[in-house]
Design brief:
The chain has 102 residues and is mostly helical. 75% of the residues lie in helices and 0% in strands. It has one domain: Chorismate Mutase Domain, subunit A (Up-down Bundle). It has three helices and no strands.
Length: 102
């Protein structure tokens, strides 16, 4: 059963909970990546490009807002999401067969 930070009595407890959370985060990233793959399939059928700048901006702003609401540094989390979005776009481009010049 997961422990709250306050329930942790040792660094072993803390490390165990961080490892548990890291595993859960990777599982969520895997799930997100699956949606990115499906988005590329749908974009292909709709004749859309991988990179849709308005959506990129929206996702980055969502990351900032979500971080702020959670009491976290919005600049840091926007940076993480910017990297995530760039990786997602590259994956979509590979599925769509887009080259760098497109």
């Amino acid at each position: 059963m997961p422990k709250t930070p306050e329930d942790c009595q040792s660094m072993t407890d803390i490390r165990s909970e961080i490892d548990r959370l890291d595993k859960a985060l990777v599982a969520l990233f895997r799930e997100r990546f699956d949606y990115i793959g499906r988005a590329a399939e749908i974009k292909n059928l709709a004749g859309l490009k991988a990179d849709i700048p308005a959506r990129v901006t929206e996702v980055q702003q969502n990351a900032r807002n979500n971080a702020t609401l959670a009491g976290l540094d919005p600049d840091f989390y926007e940076d993480i999401w910017s990297r995530l979005v760039r990786h997602s776009i590259a994956h979509e481009k590979s599925i769509l067969g887009e080259t760098e010049g497109e």
